[in-house]
Amino acid sequence: MSYSQQVFDDLSSRYAYQPEFLQAVQEVLTTLQPVLDKNPAYQKNKILERIVEPERSFHFRVEWVDDKGEIQVNNGYRVQFNSAIGPYKGGLRFHPSVNEGILKFLGFEQIFKNSLTGTPIGGGKGGSDFDPKGKSDTEVMRFCQAFMLQLHRYIGSTVDVPAGDIGVGGREIGYLYGMYKRLTTKYEGVLTGKGLNWGGSLARTEATGYGVVYFADEMLKARGQSLEGMRCAVSGAGNVAIYCCEKLIEKGAKPVTVSDSRGMIYDENGIDVKVLKQVKEEERASLTRYAELVPTAKYTPVKDYPAGHNGVWTIPVDAAFPCATQNEVNEEDAKLLIKNGVKCVSEGANMPSSIGAINAFLASGIAYGPAKAANAGGVATSQLEMEQNAGMTAWTFEEVDAKLFNIMKGIHENAAETAREFGAEGNLVLGANIAGFVKVADAMIAQGVC
User: Fold this and answer.
1) What CA–CA distance (Å, rounded) separates 85 from 225?
2) This prediction's pTM
3) Sheet-wide strand order for 231-234
4) 125 flagged as catalytic
5) Whose CA, among 25, 246, 375, 393, lies 20 to 30 Å from 235?
6) Which of 125, 194, 254, 403 is the catalytic position?
7) Span 13-57, pLDDT tens digits
8) From CA 64, how far away is CA 136, in angstroms rounded?
9) Ordered structural domains, the chain, with CATH
């Protein structure tokens, strides 16, 4: 039995109740054996046993008062996974599905994603089972203040720098930062995704969505192809999906779908990004509202999706951009996309494809960009925000966007070259995993056991 399989089997026996975490670990470990065989020092130093366990993890109670004067109680978490190459960095997710296993999967992915950016940041993740949907601004503020009352003990600009994720946008970051400043009396770059007039970075909002398109374009360029003229399926309707659509249109492609937890929009004429921003960023409404505003748009509720499929992936397209959530593309979805002629899949969400879907994409030979490479633009630009905060300066949108493009191009080149080095031309899953792992593992060895 291989070293990586031994470690995974042991982990599975201890964390069988955390399926998403085990899935994330399996996806990485199954690709690492070539580099483990090449460098016995990794097994000698038990790097795998160490890297699959968080350095520390916090679980705390969050008590807050709703608008009716009733006390509410939620769970809060921060998983600080690995700091070998820099302070912990990763988002906060506010969603009813949040638990320790979900955050461990996200934090584990973050280690390698952050390593691939080439910037000095480690991996972490946090959040709560609080649901901001349907809450007033005052309730969201009270919750964020109560959450930060517990979290502030464990973070700092050179310790752990959280950002936003699902359910945590500019509003939530503002309330969290205000409470951190009140509790610590420090005005520092401890959170990223801040407002532009109080330490935020231009292009941060757009970064993940833009980055996933930049990565797709680099994959296609390597094959002598282009996004121009391509029909594209995009899932999600949040920050990543909106700006993915915006950049696709800029590149001459046509996004024809978006989705949320209740249903999907399909419009053969292309998604109207201006209307999508109005519905999701201003009105915080369902996509049924989009269908009201755009007569050519067809709305399909989740209950009417074909059995066994996410409706978004049943639309024949040239390129697909999963930008919603984990495991939104199953094996049957992947096979249908391939059957319908998809040439490129670039992942904007974290672990949106199941193991079966990933294997189907790789077997088909299409251009497939795994999340830890393709969606690294967001965290990369968060680090650029940290850099601006540390220097007490601000860069133009064009400067940040140019840096983002170069980072995404560099990630693609690194993953592609690593895949070639290990005899797996075009396998960016293996290339990204090994390239991200080696940097962190070498740093862990250099720093000793402590």
Assistant:
1) 36
2) 0.94
3) 298-301, 263-266, 254-259, 231-234, 319-321, 344-346, 367-369
4) yes
5) 25
6) 125
7) 999 999 999 999 999 999 999 999 999 999 999 999 999 999 999
8) 13
9) 54-188 (3.40.50.10860), 205-374 (3.40.50.720)
